[in-house]
Amino acid sequence: MKTMDAIMTRRSIRAFENTPVSEEQIKTLLEAAMNAPSAGDGRPWRFVVTTDRAKLDALADAVDEGNAMFKQAQAAILICLDESLEGFKGFGPQDCSCAAQNLQLAAHELGLGTVWIAIINVPPRVAGCRKVLGVSENLIPFALFPLGVPGEQLEPEFRYDESRVQRV
Ligand SMILES: Cc1cc2nc3c(=O)[nH]c(=O)nc-3n(C[C@H](O)[C@H](O)[C@H](O)COP(=O)(O)O)c2cc1C
Prior knowledge:
The protein is of the alpha+beta class. It has one domain: NADH Oxidase (3-Layer(aba) Sandwich), CATH 3.40.109. Helices cover 39% and strands 15% of the residues. The chain has helices spanning 3-9, 23-34, 53-64, 68-72, 92-109, 123-133; strands spanning 45-50, 75-81, 113-114, 117-118, 140-148. Strands 1, 2, 3, 4 and 5 form a 5-stranded antiparallel sheet that branches. Helix 2 (23-34) packs across helix 5 (92-109) and helix 3 (53-64) packs antiparallel against helix 6 (123-133). It starts with a helix and ends in a 20-residue tail after the last strand. Flavin mononucleotide (FMN) is lined by residues 11-12, 14, 115-118, 157.
């Protein structure tokens, strides 16, 4: 898939088929995420990966009010921020966002669906991730990505808006 095709056709997927996500696919997603740019090349990210059914089910209640998509997801990757690794102080969330978007686009290319679930700055979700996935206190849960073969097909959206552009 060409880069622009991936960017222009990716959608957030919140329903998944009962088909496993392989270790090889997960490795590819992690490779894509870790190839992201980061301020000062600090790479202040950490990844918590699970394919454990009980943990995925528990995430539904702990993070998203019982959201059924976690009960359908076959894997999940939590991106965490390790502030001690920031190349420049305060840039970690931007670095983790770059990793997150790489992960989403790579998933799309692999034929997997995912959606960015906001965790950082949402205290009950941070606590839920720590409890279910055993995230240590020195890491800040940043964003969670349930994964699976898409159980819904969403049309691409074209969102270009000239009014958001200032030509000077
Ligand atoms: C920073 C960020 C936080 C998001 N948090 C959530 C979330 O908590 N739950 C959710 O269902 N979708 C979440 N999303 C997905 C957005 O709702 C989605 O990207 C947006 O509606 C556009 O749809 P699309 O991704 O299909 O293009 C988040 C997206 C971003 C970038």
